[in-house]
């Protein structure tokens, strides 16, 4: 009964609603923002690379936010998810992953900008924000914010962490023969150590681990491509032909094949880069205002979508497709392991297992940080509910370590789809304000100025209560931040 319901919801969400919703919203934002993901690509990279400064007790630096969001993005979706998509729908799924990523860059720009516009402070002075906050403060619909928070807590705090733990144990079992139960216990212990430290500890761990693991994985993918360079044109053509059903035209299954590739590619692409889902917007709101404009964080998150899917997911696809037929019994992370082992020998399996351990572990702690913000939202920014929630998260990590992969992935698809549906509606309703805020940034940048935000230009924000950008002048905000730092230092003394 449960599996039937989950399969029905997946068919409804991913067969119809979200395929059109995500592509449509991404295309709409791309056109309204004049292809910002292309015209301002270089600027996005510059902001990300120069963003280590800032942060502190009140907020994270933009680079810490980038690494935390990448920690959540880069995980099972990049390594196991790509393999699942290729197994289920053929190489054409990779093309649709690329497309949803390019369009999703504009969507990520919009949702992260709105998260910054409507962010608030919690009781400890930490910045909090995200879709729940802009649904309540921007649309005046708290019920919508509550609904989104519930979906996100289920998805990221519980189900997605089960997926990540499932992928880790799958890799460790295949490569090293470890018992899944003991692997699960180990993950729970280390995860507990990090998440008990809150958002700042999650960000600090991510800032160290994410760049190292991503660069190592990309490097090994480049080695594989170099070893098989002569096969690259054929593989690329295979992806394009399969995406549009040209490989199966003779068999008469064109429409079914295209739909299958689109569904698998968009679902796995969204699971990987999260653009439009509303998840990364939660941590985007945690960044300190440096530079002093909400749109700056939108550029950082736009680059995150590119790195996640266009770079890292493509690396996994290249490893798998360049290996050819690695066996009909290979699925999920096993397919990625078998493919890399075929390229470089037995040590390839150990490398993938280590990469999975780091990728998925950082995803667990970053997923928790997203859910924590929404638990805070539901509790009125009080931390009283966090200890109980942390125990529930760790329990789901243990469950995922020993569960069947099919059921876990299907649960992830449903919860992700419900989140994305609610968030896309909110983004479209608030798109007018977001686009004007982004264009305000671009106009100042074009004039050679350092963009700064003046809320008085936007009538919708005149009566906003509790907002960082509107409730205080820049000087007053600096004083509030200094006060929060002093409070934290006194508490630690």
From TrEMBL:
The keyword Transmembrane applies. It is a multi-pass membrane protein. GO terms for molecular function: amino acid:sodium symporter activity. InterPro entries: Na/Ala_symport (IPR001463). Keywords: Cell inner membrane, Cell membrane, Membrane, Symport, Transmembrane, Transmembrane helix, Transport. The chain crosses the membrane at residues 17-41, 143-163, 175-196, 208-229, 305-324, 344-368, 388-412, 418-438. It is found in: Cell inner membrane; Cell membrane. One of its GO terms (cellular component) is plasma membrane. Belongs to the alanine or glycine:cation symporter (AGCS) (TC 2.A.25) family. NCBIfam families: agcS. PANTHER family: AGSS FAMILY TRANSPORTER, SODIUM-ALANINE (PTHR30330), AMINO-ACID CARRIER PROTEIN ALST (PTHR30330:SF1). This is Amino acid carrier protein.
């Amino acid at each position: 009964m449960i599996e039937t319901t989950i399969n029905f919801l997946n068919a409804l969400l991913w067969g119809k609603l979200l395929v059109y919703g995500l592509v449509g919203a991404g295309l709409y934002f791309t056109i309204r923002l004049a292809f910002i993901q292309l015209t301002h690509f270089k600027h996005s990279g510059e902001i990300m690379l120069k963003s280590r400064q800032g942060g502190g007790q009140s907020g994270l630096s933009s680079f810490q936010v980038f690494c935390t969001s990448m920690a959540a993005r880069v995980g099972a979706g990049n390594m196991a998810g790509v393999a699942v998509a290729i197994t289920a729908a053929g190489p054409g799924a990779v093309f649709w992953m690329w497309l949803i990523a390019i369009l999703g860059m504009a969507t990520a720009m919009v949702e992260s900008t709105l998260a910054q516009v409507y962010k608030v402070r919690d009781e400890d002075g930490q910045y909090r924000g995200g879709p729940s906050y802009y649904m309540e403060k921007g649309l005046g619909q708290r019920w919508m914010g509550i609904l989104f928070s519930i979906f996100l807590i289920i998805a990221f705090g519980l189900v997605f962490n089960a997926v990540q733990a499932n992928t880790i144990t799958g890799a460790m079992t295949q490569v090293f023969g470890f018992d899944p139960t003991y692997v699960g216990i180990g993950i729970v212990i280390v995860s507990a150590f990090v998440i008990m430290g809150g958002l700042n500890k999650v960000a600090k761990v991510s800032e160290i681990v994410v760049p190292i693991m991503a660069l190592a994985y990309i490097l090994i993918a480049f080695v594989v491509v170099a070893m098989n360079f002569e096969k690259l044109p054929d593989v690329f053509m295979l992806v394009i032909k399969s995406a549009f059903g040209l490989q199966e035209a003779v068999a008469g299954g064109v429409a079914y094949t295209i739909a299958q590739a689109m569904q698998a590619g968009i679902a796995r692409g969204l699971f990987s880069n999260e653009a439009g889902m509303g998840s990364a917007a939660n941590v985007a709101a945690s960044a300190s205002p440096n530079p002093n404009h909400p749109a700056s964080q939108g550029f950082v998150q736009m680059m995150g979508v590119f790195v996640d899917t266009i770079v890292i997911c493509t690396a996994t696809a290249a490893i798998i497709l360049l290996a050819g037929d690695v066996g009909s019994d290979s699925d999920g992370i096993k397919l990625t392991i078998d493919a890399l082992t075929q390229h470089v020998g037995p040590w390839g399996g150990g490398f993938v297992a280590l990469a999975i351990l780091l990728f998925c572990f950082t995803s667990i702690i970053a997923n928790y940080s997203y859910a924590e913000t929404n638990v805070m939202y539901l509790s009125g920014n009080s931390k009283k509910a966090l200890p109980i929630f942390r125990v529930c998260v760790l329990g789901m990590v243990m469950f995922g370590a020993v569960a069947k992969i099919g059921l876990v992935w299907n649960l992830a698809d449903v919860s992700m789809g419900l989140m994305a549906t609610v968030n896309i509606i909110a983004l479209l309703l608030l798109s007018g304000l977001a686009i004007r805020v982004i264009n305000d940034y671009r106009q100042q940048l074009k004039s050679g100025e350092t963009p700064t935000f003046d809320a008085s230009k936007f009538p919708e924000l005149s009566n906003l209560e509790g907002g960082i950008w509107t409730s205080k002048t820049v000087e007053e905000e600096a004083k509030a931040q200094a006060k929060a730092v002093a409070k934290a230092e006194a508490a630690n003394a």
